[in-house]
Design a protein that fits this description.
Elements (H helix, E strand, L loop, with lengths): L12 H28 L14 H4 L2 H5 L3 H24 L3 H35 L14
Length: 144
């Protein structure tokens, strides 16, 4: 299989920024999940097996670092599972520390989703603009 992902240095600054935001927020979600379930506010004293919830987040890390468009697309869907968990635990955990960590997880999920969505949109727009003879991108419609 041939790697068709572009060199990150050749991408516009906005696209590089979204890549950095996506990778950074994904890494932060991994660290937060591990720290939360092992040390800061585990479900059981001494840590819990819930720390394994971060394993699915490690899978897309290589794809994001390699700038694979498909990875950005499916991560924007995967992140909603962690968003739902964060909202649930923010509103139901009795510990104020656990609830605060859950709010942090929700914020990181929103950042990750926004970065992935913007990355995909801007990469597609740049690819369309770079293709000679391609029809222009439709103007965004704003509905009141």
């Amino acid at each position: 299989m041939v790697d068709t992902s572009p060199d990150p240095a050749s991408l516009p600054a906005a696209v590089r920024w979204t890549r950095s935001a996506a990778v950074g927020s994904l890494l932060a979600l991994i660290v937060l999940g591990l720290a939360w379930e092992l040390w800061l506010a585990p479900l059981r004293p001494g840590g819990s097996w819930w720390a394994l919830k971060v394993l699915p987040l490690t899978i897309p890390l290589a794809g994001l670092l390699k700038n694979r468009m498909y990875t950005y697309r499916w991560v924007s869907l995967l992140v909603w599972l962690y968003f739902a968990e964060g909202v649930t635990r923010a509103t139901s955990d009795p510990s104020s520390l656990s609830a605060a960590l859950a709010v942090g997880q929700v914020v990181l999920c929103v950042v990750l989703f926004a970065a992935c969505a913007a990355h995909v949109r801007w990469r597609l727009a740049n690819a369309r603009a770079a293709t000679p003879g391609a029809p222009p991108a439709p103007a965004p419609q704003i509905r009141a």
